[in-house]
Amino acid sequence: MTTDHGADHRVDTDVVVCGAGVAGLAAACALGRLGLEVTLLDKRPTQPPLWKGEVLQPGSLNSLHTWDVLGRLEARRAVRLRRLVARTARGQELMAMDFAALGGERPWMLAHDYSTILECMAESLGPTVGLRRGVLVKDLSRDAGGRIRGVRAVARGTALDIRAGLVVAADGMSSRLRKLAGIDAAPVAYDHRLLSFELPGTLPVGDEVSAHATDRGLVMVYPLPDARIRVYVQVRTDELRQASPAELRRWCERLVGQVPALAPIAELLRGNLEHHRFIPVWCYRAPSLVRPGLVLLGEAAHVVHPLAAQGMNTSIGDAEVLAARLAAVDLADGAAVDGALRGYENDRMSRIRAVHTMSHNAARMMTSTSLGGRVLGRRLMRGTARSSRLNHLTTYNMSGFGIRPLGTLDRLVQLGVLPDLRGRSFTAPPLTGHLPGSAPQARRDSRDSGKKS
């Protein structure tokens, strides 16, 4: 409902979601399917193309299927990736995560352009969701008791006063709303960046992500739809700054010499050096996810190294768990909403912490450029590959279905200090418990989907 209040336009809604990236769109999809009226805002008039968040883990696909997103992605030729393989610079396999070993209905990753993923999610928003672009959120609104009750925004010079039972802050790593809510965050930059290339062509093995642990750090390659290849190369933070075309060509020749596994795509790389972007790499976790009337989702709450492809997938999990917590809550009851938010925080903090630890450990194994770090990382990966139990456990953790942390004894097995006695009789367990996409979708009976106009 929209009304005029002086120079401001007043908008009343159940939920206002700020930010139309993956986290915001996922929240709008999940909450809209509860029958809630959702107002989704984004400051950008249009979505710019970004080279990020291109790989969806198996654990996200059930949610995307429930929200009618998965079929749209596959209709646009999304690529199924069945394995994530760690390799040497020459291409020898160190460790392979085969998602088919987990079973389940969709045992694969899915790759597509980030902008296409966003488009498919936006097309899947339900009838109770309204997406408004070009709206800059300036401040939070609070009631007399200090509880957050909405946001103040500006759209094309018009001030908006948007009142809501819940504010979802999905406005990215530099979140304005997180700061306004008084939640501190200290993003930490890794000591390297990723240089990304997009090449025309196909890979000899078209259904896997190959992550090469090299003396120069990580080199990752995987296919994209429409006969394209994504390449990520680890570079120092000061490497290739303002490099001339000639310097970039010389750098490319050194890279191909250092990583012989790139030989099948070396000519493609040489011919497309201008199609590149630098990607800074950060990590952090917000110390809290909620304030009365407000919840942080996605990169407003957590950022991890992109190697393990967990950031976008964790954001989708955030939205699904939030919807499950709110499924039986009256959004007009602030106390009930805040109780649900505390439950959400309890649900998610341990999972976000575990994903953060897993992603950081994986990044250290693959990106270390010190001799000791490289030797240790490769020893851990080979040790994992030797144990069917640890390999299955690692694959499960990477899949997005859940986290089963490795213990001290597991680390000693990885290092070859102890034999894997538990692995001798290991049988892969079936996927059990809560899976993404199985959150309650029913809404309280009193809500009429046509109630608001």
From TrEMBL:
Q: Which residues form the FAD-binding domain?
A: 12-356
> Among its keywords, does the record have Oxidoreductase?
yes
- Per UniProt, the ranges with Basic and acidic residues bias are 442-453
Q: Which InterPro entries match?
A: FAD-bd, FAD/NAD-bd_sf, PheA/TfdB_FAD_monoxygenase
Keywords of the record: Oxidoreductase
Region: Disordered, residue numbers: 427-453
Give the residue range of the signal peptide.
none
Q: What is this protein called?
A: FAD-dependent oxidoreductase
- This chain's source organism reads Kitasatospora putterlickiae
